[in-house]
Amino acid sequence: MGITHLDAAGAIADITAISTALLQREPDHADSKPVIVVIEDNVDLNAFVCQALSPHYRVKAAFDGRSGLELARAHRPDLIVCDIMMPQLSGDELLHQVRADPTLANTPVLILTARSDDQSRLALLHAGANEYLSKPFQLGELRARVDNLVNLRLAEAHARTSRVAAERERIALELHRSLTQRLFLISLQLSAVLPLARVPAVAERIGESVRELDAVINDVRNTINQLDIPTGDETNFRLRMSDLLGEVTEALDARFQVFFTGPLDTIDRTITSALYDAVQQLVTAILRHAIADEIILQASYETDLVVTVIEKSRTAPSPTAATDLTALLPQQLAARGTRLDMTTPDTGETAWTWTVPMAITRRADD
């Protein structure tokens, strides 16, 4: 049974679903306004604070520490404003409970206190209070301190969400690449046994499976290009090229060698990825249409980046083997004026050389 485009879409959807589950979202609020929990046992002061903040915030009121803590756990607010002297649970105790609760630990807390001595204020800060406001206070000062704390909270939440989203995309990209590599190796192995199939129907079935696998690989590669997420190893030119040749030659029992010269790992990720795709397509074509004994990759970076793939074989390669040079020159390389040459340096050898002008990149770096 071959792999279809529908299977490819399903595989991509499954991978994306797995990675999406890793993104933990901030609690959704029915209203776009930030949520503030006000805990104050003085009814008049509670109403005053709630009224002052309600134009810009969704305010939830509590009149003792215990109910205030339950309210905070239920709504996961962007800020808690609380008194110190309260029934059932004091402000000090509530602060301790908030900092010990994983769902509230990062919630900013503004303490309203009648204590004016420095020692009491310092104790509150050490206990985890973000700000304190001495009673009696000016309405403008209350609003300013609340605005500052909420804005800081929202900025931190946005940064945290962005980091998690970036990590999700990085993991999705790695999963897509892993799937591509596995399918690529399976496709090569099927291509290797294709000449051994003596029954025409079997040969046709294998050929069909290879074509379907290639379509799946292209689908996944297109998804990777759409993600376009920079990862730490994308600029590791040496490692990526070595791994590529090692995997494909091992799959088909061929030898390989790599030779690197110059600061190759400083090459930007766009060029690295484009060359990786081009070399992968070339090696695939070589191993499908010829019996390669050895594949050599040479890469040097001085003024220009020069990458050469040499195929050595005791058997002459098929005329159809990797002769379509335009297919081996991705748009990212062509746009930089890259030149691709195919030569026969020695008997039984065919060489493909990419010459990528790098002067523009170096001047930009300087």
Automatic annotation (TrEMBL):
Residues bearing the modification 4-aspartylphosphate: D83
The EC category is: transferase
Q: List the InterPro entries.
A: CheY-like_superfamily (IPR011006), HATPase_C_sf (IPR036890), Sig_transdc_His_kin_sub3_dim/P (IPR011712), Sig_transdc_resp-reg_receiver (IPR001789)
User: So which domain of life are we looking at?
Assistant: Bacteria
**Residue limits of the Response regulatory domain?**
35-150
Matching entries from Pfam families are given as: HisKA_3, Response_reg
Q: Which PROSITE patterns match?
A: RESPONSE_REGULATORY
A single Gene Ontology MF term assigned here is: phosphorelay sensor kinase activity
Keyword list, A-Z? Kinase, Phosphoprotein, Transferase
User: In the Enzyme Commission scheme, what number(s) does this protein have?
Assistant: 2.7.13.3
Q: Which GO terms describe its cellular component?
A: membrane
- Please give the name of this protein: Sensor histidine kinase TmoS
Per the UniProt record, the source organism is Mycobacterium innocens
